[in-house]
Fold:
Amino acid sequence: MNRHLDDLHGGRVARDRTSMQQLQARALGDPTRHAIFRYLAGERRPVDVAELTGHMGLHHNAIRQHLSRLVAAGLAVESTAAPTGRGRPRLVYEVPPSVDSRWGVTGPYEQLSVLLSEIIRTGDSPVDVGRRAGSTPEIVAVGAEPADAMVDRLNRYGFDPMSKRTGDRVELVLQTCPFETTALADPDIVCSLHLGLAYGLADSIGGIVVDDLVRSDPRQSPCVLRCHVEPNTD
Structure:
C-alpha cells in the first residue's frame, strides 16, 4: 500500500512539474517576454520597471504585463525595495536561483559546480565559500520580519522551507535539498555549503542569526536550520 501511495505521489509530482514546464514555455514563447527574462537573468540582481522600460524601449504598462506573466510562471519573483524617499517603494524583479537551467539560467547543479570549483581553487572551507555566495544585498519587503525574509530567500534557492517559531527561536525545516544527489554522496561538503549559504543570507538580511544545521538523510527526513531572531533595539 505504501508503494502504491508513493507511486501516486510520484506521478502527481511529475504531472505538476510537466504542467509548470509547459506554463513556463508558453510564457517564454513571446519574444519580448523572453528578452525581459534574459535581461533579468543576466543582471543577477533585482531590477525595477523603470530600468526595464529604458532597456526595452517599451511603455511601463507593457513591461508590467510581461513581468506579471513571468512571475505567474515562476520565472521571476517580485519584491519591494526599501524606501529611499517620498512615494511608494519600488517593486523589483529577479530570476530565482531555483529556475531550471533548461531556460538558459544556471541550474542548481551548475551552481554547485561553481561552488565546488571555488573550494578547490581557493582552498577555503565549504562554509566560507557558501557564506560568500549567500552574502549579497537582500531586497526585503518593507516591514518584513527577519525570519520571514529568511524563509523567502531560502525558498528562492529551492529549499522549500517551513518555519516553526517559538519565541525568538526559529526552526526552518528544509523540505527540499536542491543538491540531494550530491549530498548523498558527500554530505559533509554539501551540508557545509548549505550552512555557509544560510550564514551569508542571515548576514545580509540582518536581525536573524543561524545557530546550526541539523543534518538528515534527505531521503528519510528533511534537514532543519536552527536560528534565533535578535531583539529589535530601535
The longest helix spans residues 2-27. The CA atoms of residues 26 and 123 lie 43 Å apart. The first strand starts at residue 47 and ends at 48. Residues 2-94 form a domain with the Arc Repressor Mutant, subunit A fold (CATH 1.10.10.10).
